[in-house]
Write a structure and sequence with these properties.
heterodimer; A: 259 residues; alpha/beta; Dihydrodipicolinate Reductase, domain 2; 2 domains; eight-stranded mixed beta sheet; five-stranded parallel beta sheet; 6 helices; 13 strands; globular; B: 349 residues; Rossmann fold; six-stranded parallel beta sheet; 12 helices
Chain lengths: 259, 349
């Protein structure tokens, strides 16, 4: 796929409008609809489908996949490369947040998300872990401490860093995620909205000199994913995702065996 | 003009200087500070002079002063029980005891017993429960008990001196104590102290939402760096609890209390302690929209003194102190369980 010419794209059936058609409409010069799946340079695969691993495996050599919000659900990624499009981790602010967390001195990160009442918490936990990965906080330990219909509490480690993870279910406020790390003289905080809208994330850096809101990007996380792929066709999130998925599945199994 | 209520204050440290005297200055039409007691004669003299009051080193003398109608107990926590009981027995018109009410549930029950015997109204200085935003939230939310499945109290503060210095010019500030965080017992002590000194502010709010009768179980806990801080993840029945506090080198205070129900969320943003920065801002969000309180210019300290005046004048019935006893029971059980959890080396560290 060339970064200069228009790329042909195929959106798998069943994918929600915000993750497919609406993105295509917003990038009409970069992407054009392919006549059929086999002819597409890029295929957008619905990770919420139980068959996503199969769909990914069916791609021809040279085709690139955008995998939207996958869950492992017994199937494991088959090693084929893909670009991940996850609700919070694909937000445009994650790159700047990654720089900010990387530059700051901190010990503990709070990672919290509000999800709709009745949401699948297993999936939501994986989304949180993917968010952490996207700000370069790759977890190497994860332990679920409590889970019920109202949410989930977990703790994790990323090297020397400690991470608290919290999922709370409510319909009282819109779904969002928040990361906050207290630094020596302030904090780094990013609030990430749900992926379907272009509502921007807010990344705030506070230090002794004051508090600064970094420039906001009014772009949906789905569109950011496509743009990233357009700018860097060799992107591959599959290895990192496999690690994160394994960690989450293991933690959830530990939770279940501990009941 | 109605006669002013005479105030006697026991303990003249930063809380008296930076909180109560400025609050009373705003209520000068109702109160007059008449006597201030402190174990340090120099501090008592300096603070009393600025308030135009008499200085004393004797609790008994202050309680025997017939010009003192209302007593505020702002001494070290370990003296709260005996001094509150003594003020009740002295037949004062009302007593304000700074939080925590006592350092044990047995002491608190003894205070409640004496309060019932004497009929003297006693309130505990958990100022955020007097805050207009909290009163609005209680009224707007409706029945709170068991109505939330997640509760969060996050208290991020600069060192106290930053706000004390905005509130007044403090005489004789206690020094910070160095602590060895490699020692689990020290970390446990720090967390205990933090919960009883800072977390205590939100215990009534927390308790009001918890499912009744469900014990609190610690999931993970940590005592944080000096001067103090804590992080407590807990659960009571189906309600998950996240309590965290850190006092450190930031200039930016953030004092948030949140409760989550299936279809609504309460969010309260409290103003920092010491400064007279008005009421908190509270909002309740539902799928239909968000409602919020109209913040007022009076903070919880002024509101609590306002209530105290009305109690002393018989305009309000004496509050049931058993509520404060139950708040303390929750605070003590959480602080003790947290300290035990940390001492045993459980959790992440």
């Amino acid at each position: 796929m060339s970064a200069r010419t228009q790329s042909s794209i195929w959106i798998d059936e069943g994918l929600e409008v915000e993750a497919g058609e609406a993105v295509l409409e917003s990038l009409p010069l970069s992407f054009a609809r392919a006549g059929n799946r086999a002819a597409a340079e890029v295929v957008v695969v619905d990770g919420r489908s139980r068959r996503w691993s199969h769909e990914l495996g069916s791609l021809a050599e040279g085709q690139v996949a955008v995998l939207v919000d996958p869950w492992v659900d017994g199937a494991t990624p088959d090693g084929r490369p893909f670009v991940l499009d996850t609700p919070w981790g694909s937000n445009a602010a994650c790159a700047a947040a990654s720089d900010a967390f990387g530059a700051a001195s901190w010990q503990r990160l709070e990672c919290r998300a509000v999800v709709a009442a009745g949401a699948d918490l297993d999936r939501a936990l994986l989304r949180l872990v993917c968010l952490l990965r996207s700000v370069d906080v790759a977890l190497d330990q994860l332990r679920v401490l409590a889970v019920n219909a109202g949410g989930l509490t977990a703790v994790a480690r990323s090297g020397e860093h400690l991470v608290d993870l919290d999922l709370t279910c409510t319909d009282g406020v819109r779904s969002h995620a928040l990361l906050r790390a207290l630094t020596d003289d302030g904090d780094v905080t990013v609030v990430i909205p749900e992926p379907a809208t272009a509502q921007p994330a807010e990344l705030t850096l506070t230090d002794a000199a004051g508090s600064r809101l970094l420039p906001t990007t009014w772009e949906s996380a789905h569109r950011t994913t496509w743009r990233r792929l357009r700018e860097n066709p060799s992107l591959d999130d599959s290895v990192a995702f496999a690690k994160d998925a394994e960690l989450v599945v293991g933690a959830l199994a530990g939770k279940e065996s501990g009941r | 003009m109605p006669q002013k209520l005479g105030v006697g204050i026991i303990g003249a440290g930063p809380v008296t200087q930076a909180i109560h005297l400025p609050a009373l200055a705003r209520l000068a039409e109702r109160f007059e500070v008449r006597e201030i007691m402190d174990a340090d004669a120099g501090v008592a003299e300096a603070v009393a002079r600025r308030a135009g009051a008499r200085a004393t080193g004797s609790v008994e003398a202050l309680l025997a002063n017939p010009d003192v109608d209302v007593v505020a107990i702002c001494s070290p926590h370990r003296f709260h029980a005996e001094q509150t009981i003594a003020a009740c027995r002295a037949g004062k018109k009302a007593v304000l005891c700074e939080k925590p009410l006592t350092l044990s549930v047995a002491e608190a029950e003894a205070v409640a017993e004496v309060q019932r015997e004497t009929g003297v109204p006693v309130i505990v200085g958990t100022m955020h429960t007097f805050d207009a935003a909290w009163k609005w939230a209680r009224e707007s939310w409706g029945e709170t008990a068991g109505s939330a499945h997640a509760i969060r109290s996050s208290i991020i503060l600069p060192p106290n001196a930053r706000f004390e210095d905005f509130a007044t010019e403090v005489v004789a500030r206690p020094a910070d104590v160095e602590a060895d965080l490699s020692d689990a017992a020290v970390r446990a002590q720090i967390a205990h102290l933090g919960l009883m000194a800072v977390g205590i502010h939100n215990m009534p709010h927390l308790r009001s939402f918890l499912p009744p009768g469900e014990p609190v179980r610690i999931l993970d806990a940590e005592g944080l760096q000096p001067p103090f801080g804590y992080r407590v993840l807990a659960q009571a029945g189906e309600c998950r609890i996240d309590l965290r506090c850190l006092m450190y080198g930031t200039w930016k205070p953030s004092w948030i209390f949140e409760a989550y129900g299936t279809d609504r969320r309460l969010h309260i943003d409290f103003t920092p302690s010491y400064v007279q920065a008005g009421s908190a801002s509270a909002s309740i969000s539902t799928p239909r929209g968000t409602t919020s309180n109209a913040p007022t210019s009076q903070n919880g300290y002024v509101e609590e003194w306002d209530d105290l005046a009305r109690l002393a004048l018989g305009e309000l019935p004496a509050p049931d102190l058993s509520v404060a006893v139950e708040d303390l029971r929750l605070a003590m059980s959480l602080a003790d369980a947290t300290a035990e959890f940390i001492s045993k080396g459980a959790g992440q560290r």
